[in-house]
Amino acid sequence: MTTVFILAAVAAFFAILLCLPALRRVILTPLLFALFKRMLPPLSATEREALESGSVGWDGELFSGNPDWQKLLALPPPTLTPAEQAFLDGPVEELCAMLDDWRIVEHDKDLPPQVWEFLKTQRFFGMIIPPEYGGLGFSALAHSAVIMKLASRSITAAVTAMVPNSLGPAELLMQYGTQGQKDYYLPRLARGEEIPCFALTGPEAGSDAASMPDLGVVCKGIFAGEEIVGIRLNWEKRYITLGPVATLLGLAFKLNDPEHLLGDKVELGITLALIPTKTPGISIGRRHVPLDIPFQVGPNWGTDVFIPLDYLIGGAARAGQGWRMLMECLGVGRSISLPALSTGAGKLACRGVGAYARIRRQFRVPVGSMEGVEEPLARIAGLTYQMEAARVLTCAAVDRGEKPSVLSAIVKYHLTERMRVVLNDAMDVAGGSAICLGPRNYLGRPYQSIPIGITVEGANILTRTLIIFGQGAIRSHPYVLKEMQAVAHPDPAVGLQQFDRAFFAHVGLTIRTALRSFGCGLGGSFLLSVPAGPARRILQRTTRRCSAFALTADVAMLILGGNLKRKEKLSGRLADILANLYLLSAMVKQFEERGRPLDELPLLEWSCAESLRVIDSAFVGFFRNFPNRPIAWLLRFLTFPLGIRPQGACDRLGHRVATLLMAPSALRERLTQGIYLPTGTDEALGRIDDALTKVVAAEAVEKKLRTARKAKQIFAVDESEALREGVAAGVISAAEAEMVESANAARREVIRVDDFPADYGHTF
After folding, report:
1. How open is the CA angle 424-426-428, to the nearest 5 degrees?
2. DSSP H helices in 464-491
3. What is the pLDDT of residue 764?
4. Which residue has the higher pLDDT, 39 or 444?
5. What is the DSSP letter of 205?
6. Considering only CA atoms, which of 590, 508, 584, 587 is closest in space to residue 550?
7. Tens of pLDDT along 284-333?
8. CA–CA distances in Å: residue 693 to residues 92, 350, 642, 664, 742
9. Where are the beta strands (DSSP E) in 315-402?
C-alpha cells in the first residue's frame, strides 16, 4: 500500500508540473534541458547543414503517427504539359529509335556522334533550365519520364542525359548562381555548347564526401595577365560522370583563407566552383569502365590551379556554403534520375518477361503457369507497381517546390534495390535467353548496370543505415529538430523557453501515440477513421503501423540518445519501416488517382501486403535486438500486444498478379506505360509483343487439337502433322492451322539467342 501511495504521489506531482507551465519551467524544464543537452550526439557543421537542408513533406505526417490521408489524397494528380508530352512522343521516341545499344556497348564504347549531336540540339541537357535561358523548363515529372523511357532502351543514353539535369552545375546555378553566371552559362548548357560534370567524390572521400582532402587557398595570383585575389586549388577526384568529355567542371573543395583576404575566418568550409576544363593545371580525359556500361565517366586532377573568385558558384558571398547547397540540390536530383532509371528497368522486365513466360513452353505448358515461376513474376509486377507509385509521388513533391531530403533518400535506395530484385527475378525466368549477350538480349545490360545505381549518389548501405532514419528522425519529426535548435540557442533563456514548448508538445504526442498504438494493437484499427473505398483496410493497417513506428522511434531516441546513430542495424530497420510506410502511401495515392480501377486491385493488394510484411519483419528484428530488454518488451506490448505475425500476400493473390503480366490487357499497358515500345519484329520487345498476341490467339486452336487427340480424331504427335490431320478431320480450319503455325514461328523467334564466330572478340 505504501508503494502504491508513493507512486501515486509522484505521478500526481508530475501531473501538476505538466499542467502548470510557469511552475514547470522553474522546476522541471531546466533539468530536462541539461539532460537533453548531454544526450545529444556531437554534430559536425556538415551534419548540421545536412539536417537543416531540404524540406519536410509527407514524411512529417508519417512521423506524426497519425497521417492525414485526406491531405494526401487531396493533392492534385501530377500531369505532363502538352509540350512535355510532345517531347516524349517526338524527340525522345526519335532518340530511342536511333539507339543501337548492342553496338554502343560492344563496339563503339560510346554514344555515336549523331546521338551526341541530337542530345545537344534537342536540348536534352537543358531539360531543367528555364526557357528564358534557352532550356526546356520541364517539370520533375517530365524529366523523370524522359529518363525512364531512355533507360528502357539504353542505360548509357539514360545516364548521359540525366547527369546534366540532376548532378550537373545547372541546378546549382539556378538556385545559387549570380545573375552574371546564369546569363552566361545557362544558355550554353541548354544548347549543349558546354558539357558539364560535377566532381565531388575522391579516393579518400566517397559516401563520406565531407571528409574530402581537396583544398583551395585564397591568395593573390596572376590570372589573364593581372594580379588578382583568387583561389589556388589542388584536388584529386574519381568516378566523375561525363568527366572525360566535360568542358565545364563543377568542383567541391574545402576553402581556407590564411591571409584573411575574405574575412576573419581561416577555415571557410566546403565551397563550390565552376571551372572551364581547359584551365591550366587541370588533367582530365581518362575513363573508368563501370561494368562495361560505356557512359563517359573518369577521374580528374588539379595541380596548382589558380581561379578568380568569380568562378565560385554564387560568387565570393557563397564561399563556405557548398555543403548546404549540395545537400539541397542532391536531394532534388536523387528524387528523379535514379528512381526513373530503376522504374524504367522494372517496366521493361514486366513487359518482356511477363510475355516471355506465356510464350516459352516447357513440359508442354507455358513456363508462367508453373507455381515456381509465378512467384518471381508476382514480385516483378508488384515491385514495379511500388516503384512507379513512389516515382510519381516524389516527382509531384518536387514540382510543388519541396526539396525532399529524406524522401529522396528513400526512393534512391528502395527503387534501386527493387530494380536489383526485379532484374534478378527477370533473369531467372528468362533463363538462357537472358545470359547470352547479343542484339536480341534486352535484359543483359540493365542487369549488368545494377550495382552502378546501388553505389552512386550515396552508397545504398549507408543510405539505409545512416540517412533515411538518421536524418529523418530529426528532420521529419514534428519536434526533435526544434528541441535540438532550442538547446543550441545562443541565448539560454530563449532556448529554455523554446525547449519547454517543443519538449512537452513532444511528450503529449508520444502519450497520444502510445494510446492509439495500444488500442489499434487490440483490434481497434478497424475503428480508425480513414477515407472510404477499396483501399480502406490498407489505410487502417498503415495508420496502425505509423503509430507503432512513431512510438518506437521516440522511445529509441529517448533511451539510446546519441548512441542510436551508431546502432546502424537498428536504424536500418527503422528506415525500412519508414520507407515502406511511404511506399504504402504512394500506392494508395496512385490507385485513387487512377479512379480505383478494379483490374488493378489485386496488384495493389499484393504490393501493399509485401510492404506490410517488410514492416512487420523489421519490427520483429528491432524488438529482438534492442539493447534495453525491459524497454523492448514494453514497446512490443504497447505496439503489438497480441503479437506480430509478418505475412505477405497469399499464393492465390500471387497467382492473379502473375497472370496479369502474361496477357495483353489495359492493366499490362498501364503497368508498363512510359517505356520505349518498338513496333517492328526486328527488335526484341517488338518480337515479344507480336508473339504474345499470336500465342494467346492460337491457344484456343491448340485446345481443340488436344481435345481431338483425346477423342481419337487425330493421332499425330508431330505438331505440323497434327495441324494437317486436324484440318483434314474438320477439327480446325485452314485459317486456324495457319494461326498456330504463325504463333509457333513467332515463338521460335523469341526464344532464339545470339551466337558469334569462334574467334569473336579476339584481338591480335
Report:
1. 70
2. 469-475, 480-487
3. 40
4. 444
5. B
6. 508
7. 989 999 999 999 999 999 999 999 999 999 999 999 999 888 887 777 77
8. 26, 16, 50, 7, 11
9. 361-362, 365-366
Q: Under DSSP, is residue 279 helix (H, G, I), strand (E, B) or coil?
A: coil
What cell was used for 274?
565552376
Question: pLDDT at residue 215 above 70?
Answer: yes
Contact criterion met (CB below 8 Å) for 406 and 57:
no
Cβ burial, residue 424 (10 Å; 0-12/13-18/19+): middle
**Which grid cell is 612?**
506490410
Higher pLDDT, 520 or 535: 535
Query: Is 128 within 8 Å of 170 (Cβ atoms)?
Result: yes
The cell numbers describing 212, all together, are 574530402
Phi, psi of 251 (to 5 degrees): -135, 135
Distance of CA 114 to the CA centre of its chain: 31
3-state secondary structure 51-107: HHCCECCHHHHHHHCCCCHHHHHCCCCCCCCHHHHHHHHHHHHHHHHHCCHHHHHHH
Is the CB of residue 357 less than 8 Å from the CB of residue 376?
A: no
Could you tell me the pLDDT band of residue 5, with boundaries at 50, 70 and 90? Answer: low
Strand 248-256 to 267-276 pairing:
antiparallel
Q: Grid coordinates standing for 654?
A: 500471387
Rounded average pLDDT over 86-95: 98
Give one DSSP letter per residue of 393-449, joined into a string.
HHHHHHHTT--BHHHHHHHHHHHHHHHHHHHHHHHHHHTHHHHS-STT-SSHHHHHH
Nearest-10 crossing angle of helices 651-661, 371-399 = 70
| C-beta of residue 148 within 8 angstroms of C-beta of residue 388 | no
DSSP, res 271:
E
Q: How confident is the model at residue 341 (pLDDT cuts 50, 70, 90)?
A: very high
CA distance 171 to 135: 12
Q: Cα dist. 326→209, 216, 221 in Å?
A: 11, 18, 28
pLDDT tens string 25-64: 777 778 877 877 776 665 566 666 666 667 788 998 998 8
What is the rounded CA–CA span in Å between residue 633 and residue 611? 24
Q: Cα–Cα distance between 149 and 99 in angstroms, integer?
A: 12
Buried b (16+ CB within 10 A) or exposed e, 396-407: bbbbeebbbbbb
Whole-model pTM over 0.90: yes
**Which of 399, 338, 409 is closest to 162 using CA atoms?**
338
Q: Which of 619, 624, 610 is nearest to 640 (CA)?
A: 619
- The count of C-alpha atoms lying within 13 angstroms of the C-alpha of 446, restricted to the half-sphere facing its C-beta, is 33
Return the HEC string of 567-579: CHHHHHHHHHHHH
> What pLDDT, on the 0 to 100 scale, is given for residue 167?
75
Q: Which residues are catalytic?
A: 457
Asked if 429 contacts 688 with a C-beta cutoff of 8 angstroms, the reply is no
Mean pLDDT over the full length of the chain: 91
Contacts for 106 with CB less than 8 Å, ≥ 6 apart: 437
Identify which has the larger pLDDT, 290 or 501. Answer: 290
Q: Phi/psi at 55 (nearest 5 deg)?
A: -135, 170
**CA–CA separation, 632 and 459 (whole Å):** 30
Assess whether pLDDT exceeds 50 at residue 7. Answer: no
pLDDT for the residue numbered 15: 56
